[in-house]
UniProtKB/TrEMBL annotation:
Keyword hit for Nucleotide-binding: yes
GO cellular component: cytoplasm
GO molecular function list: ATP binding; protein serine/threonine kinase activity
Protein family membership: Belongs to the protein kinase superfamily. Ser/Thr protein kinase family. GCN2 subfamily.
Boundaries of every Protein kinase domain copy: 19-327
Binding-site residues, ATP: K48
Protein name as catalogued: Serine/threonine protein kinase
Organism, scientific name: Amycolatopsis umgeniensis
InterPro entries named among the record's database cross-references: CC_SR_Kinase, Kinase-like_dom_sf, Prot_kinase_dom, Protein_kinase_ATP_BS, Ser/Thr_kinase_AS
Keywords attached to this entry: ATP-binding, Kinase, Nucleotide-binding, Serine/threonine-protein kinase, Transferase
Length: 354
């Protein structure tokens, strides 16, 4: 099958294990995600299928995602793995030909939507709602870091929305295909970490300029940039790195070759590229958030990785990640600030009426 639509039509008719596939939800080069139902209970789930023509790195990432989701099972803000398996199915071709293929799949809890959809209509949601959803993403990454797992591909497209009772919407981290368990040996060469593994439109500048490292601290700092980038999306609707650096694969390849020759860009010199972007973000903030919200985005998305951490109180215990409680607290303060300002504004309006 050569076209994506052909694969989608074929897969949507299948039953994999105990799950009947239905509507196509989305996917990428090597995988497809479908809404599905359990044939006995009728429970609705999402089934992620690895295409049988996938390359070896994609197969390794798919298998690793299953392992990581198993380690994170029942984490409140990481999408939950329900089941996983493989199924041999018959693929018809030509007039009478048939080929038996093996399909790997993950069964995941079914979300209502991805955060990217809200980014596109962000003007319809308040800043309290935006920050609350962002806090859910931070909590998910916090839970990952406590288990020594880093995401490495943070963007709104990889964050999933779940509507809970009383119409409360929570946001969870999903798509762990590029994630890494820091307790395990690397499966790629050390130099492959120079440029990262995720979407370059959202990648931290150290990846664009081939200065990434395979260390707990470097991975943590890259995830912090990713979290800041999601906040930037929620504020402006734009991909921060794409806006500031417009990275291309040829540019990244050139930076990689330069590093091999010992020529390394001073990342502090890149700050000027971010100045206008940060000003655009600040303009989108309500008055009560302009000072502290703007300061936080500048910290998290500083081109110099070491500047993304608070000045005090954060350390790596024996090389282990310590979580993101400090960022959760900062976010809680921002949320309370907006709520307090809203109450003050309402009281002021009532006094004016009286």
């Amino acid at each position: 099958m050569s076209s994506p639509d052909s694969w989608n039509d074929f897969l949507a008719s299948l039953q994999l294990g105990q799950y009947q596939l239905h509507n196509y939800l989305g996917g990428g080069q090597f995988g497809r995600v479908f809404e599905a139902s359990h044939v006995s209970s009728g429970d609705r789930v999402a089934v992620k299928v690895l295409l049988p023509n996938s390359e070896l790195p994609a197969i390794a990432e798919f298998d690793r995602e299953r392992s990581l989701l198993s380690l994170l099972h029942k984490s409140s803000n990481v999408v939950d793995l329900v089941d996983s398996g493989s199924e041999k199915v018959e693929l018809q071709y030509g007039a009478s030909g048939a080929l038996l293929i093996d399909l790997k799949y993950h069964v995941l809890e079914l979300s209502n939507e991805c955060l990217e959809v809200l980014v596109l209509c962000r003007d319809k949601i308040t800043w309290v709602e935006r920050l609350t959803l962002w806090r859910g993403v931070i909590l998910g990454v916090h839970q990952m870091h406590l288990k020594q797992i880093v995401h490495r591909d943070m963007k709104s497209e990889n964050c999933l929305l779940f509507v809970k009772p009383k119409n409360i919407t929570d946001c969870k981290v999903g798509d762990l295909g590029r994630a890494r368990d820091l307790r395990e040996e690397a499966i790629v060469r050390p130099e492959d970490y120079f440029v990262g593994r995720g979407d370059m439109r959202f990648a931290p500048p150290e990846f664009v300029f081939a200065q990434g490292e395979d260390s707990p601290r470097a991975h943590m700092l890259a995830d912090l940039y990713g979290l800041g980038s999601i906040l930037f999306e929620l504020g402006t609707g734009q991909a921060l790195t794409s806006l500031t650096l417009a990275p291309t694969r040829s540019q990244v390849t050139h930076a990689f070759m330069e590093r091999q020759q010992g020529r390394i860009v001073d990342l502090s010199s890149v700050r000027k590229n971010y100045k206008l972007a940060f000003e655009i973000f600040e303009e989108e903030l309500p008055a009560s958030l302009k000072q502290h919200g703007a300061a936080l985005i500048r910290q998290l998305c500083d081109p110099v990785p070491s500047e993304r951490l608070p000045k005090k109180g954060i350390s790596l215990d024996g090389g282990n990640l310590s979580g993101l409680e400090w960022l959760l607290r900062r976010t809680d303060i921002l949320i309370r600030t907006v709520k307090t300002e809203k109450v003050k504004s309402r009281r002021s309006s009532l006094r004016g009426v009286s």
